[in-house]
Design a protein that fits this description.
- The chain contains 3 helices and 5 strands.
- The chain is α+β, with helices and mostly antiparallel strands.
- Strands 1-2-3-4-5 form a 5-stranded antiparallel β-sheet, with no helix packed on it.
- The model has no long low-confidence stretch (mean pLDDT about 85).
C-alpha cells in the first residue's frame, strides 16, 4: 500500500478462484486459505492464513504482476476474514 493513499476496505472478503490462485501461485504454497478484497483500480488486498494459523496480508496488482507484503501498521488496521 502506498503511504498516504486512500483505499476502501469496505468490500467483503471472498475466497480466491482457481484462476486467481494461479496468478498468486507464490502464496498458494504458503497459505492454507487465501482470500481477497477488491479495493478498486484493479488492486486487491490478499489475506493469507499461514500454516501456523497467523494471518499475513499483501497488496496485489495482478495486471502489473505485483505482490507486496503490507507494512505492520497497515496490517493492524485490517480485520481478517472469518
Amino acid at each position: 500500500m502506498i503511504s498516504g493513499e486512500e483505499v476502501s476496505l469496505e468490500n467483503p472478503w471472498r475466497k480466491t478462484t482457481e484462476s486467481e490462485n494461479y496468478k498468486f501461485d507464490r502464496l498458494t504454497d504458503e497459505c492454507e486459505k487465501l482470500y481477497m478484497k477488491d479495493i478498486g483500480s484493479g488492486d486487491f488486498i490478499l489475506a493469507c492464513l499461514k500454516k501456523n494459523k497467523s494471518w499475513d496480508f499483501y497488496w496485489a496488482t495482478p495486471k502489473k504482476n505485483e505482490l507486496v507484503p503490507l507494512a505492520e501498521e497497515i496490517k493492524e488496521e485490517i480485520t481478517p476474514p472469518n
